[in-house]
Queue: 2 jobs
Job 1
Amino acid sequence: MIQRHDRHETARDRARVAAELLEEARQLTETAMLAAAPPDPTIGPPRNGNGHGNGNSHNSGNGHNNGNGNGHSSGSRTIDSLPPIRSQAERALSALDDAVLAQPDSVPLLLERATHLGGMGRYTAARADLEHALLLDPASVTVRSALGIVLLRKGLWADAIPHLRLVVETESWSPTAWFYLGEALNHVDDLDGALAAFGRAAELDPHHAKALYGQGVVLDRLRRPDDAARLYRRSREVAGR
């Protein structure tokens, strides 16, 4: 862990320290993501004769796990030996906290921390960082888009809509932006607006299964079941199901 020293530093020093802390945070985040990946199917409890686990997990050879918390194994790493995902995420967040402390008005750092907080489900803290970043750079479409999505995650549909409208005005080519706007409008019962937004997303990306499905949902709500069924079918086809 990079240690921050309390001393008078130049702006260049602070920028360098912030960059180092940010890189450390990214590395920790990547480690956490690797730890969260599905385990190797060759590692884990053996199967019994009928193809089902027998409930008494153990590894062949000398290693064993008797369920009392003291299990161990030799050879391949078991899931128990992976680093705790939560602690890795917290360490990454701590590094980002130090980076923001070194440069409190850095929009990229605030955005990076907000993204990390959002990934941890800490949407209130992520919103605070993004609102601060937006005050510093009101023209940033990236920040505004991230804020809109965080507000959606918090269920604040009406609050998200003005941000998402501004995003689609600037990035009218983005099917993702139109899709999120459609989601928000659907939740505040602006069905005509939601249908138009989902439709625009599907027009820009004919293989956007979620946008097609969203159209189906809205058409169902508009009591157009035949049209809805057609969109649901198309969504399944695009998704390969």
Job 2
Amino acid sequence: MRLALISRTFEGAAAIVVSATLLALAAAPPKREQTSVGITALPPATYASFFGQQRQMIADSLQWQIRLAEWQPLAWPPEQFKFELRNEESKAVSQFTLHAWRPPSQALQVNQIDEIDIFGDRLLILGRAGASSTEADVVDLPSGRILDRFSCFMPVVSPDHRFVAFLKSFPGHPGPVSVTAEYLVYSLAQGSAFNRPHFKPDILTDAGWAVYPPGATNAPGSNLVPGLDSPVHWISSGRLFWLDAHTMAFTDRYPAENRLVVVDLSKEVQAPVVRTKLLNTSGLIDLQRCRNNYSPEDLKNISADPSGLIRVQQISPAPETPGYVRLRFDPSPCLTRTELTLELP
């Protein structure tokens, strides 16, 4: 089912450009990898929008039209959000209210709603209590009953709204520990118990199936590694990306290497097919190009691990070269190129 999501600001449409997409390659298909030309802008992830002003929202599917009808108080932050539902077949109209604080648990709250998505008879509401603290609520339609809720970090919904991919949230952690990234996917086609295959359904911080790195479990505290200097995984792309309805991609750095990670969810979240490809640091970074941009001491530290200079701004399919993806890098004076086309691993 192809669904539409329309998001408008309260004072008019606003676009925030934080990354870029692509146009077609002008050259012949690459043999292995090459630089590329022609880049246009991707819409930003909704969690990156301004925090402090509620926007109007509408979501449509073949069966439903849902809009955020009002919020109270109008002065930010709101304490409750009223949704209006219209059944496209029966034309019946109903409403439900989402409160910022929801008993019995007071562990999570929503002060601002960033995104709404429909999958079948389920509505996904992504909201924030703080600038970087996202909560997902899964709501039954048309009753408005909350089926599930969980915290997530950097969530991005698949094009068909079936999956939401995100990083495991970081709990409070006493003692000398490091935080390592665990990449998770929640399936809206399944219930809350399915999406917590090993743990209690009422745990708010451990929803979703772990798809990367190898051995990740999404157990409570599983993204905490003893020691402040322990090697850890961390996302080196600006966000998670969907190449199509069931394939996500990102780059991960561990401990001094960047890898393109491609996750195929054709067989659902419990059976991901994960492939990776190493990004060649020496082919992307030339410290001689930027020796005048850093002090001798800084350049010495950078030369010990230049992989940290690689930040991927965007990952997109290469439209004229099936089986390839295009990477766009954040600008850096040390980079030998700004774009790279790679064969999928």
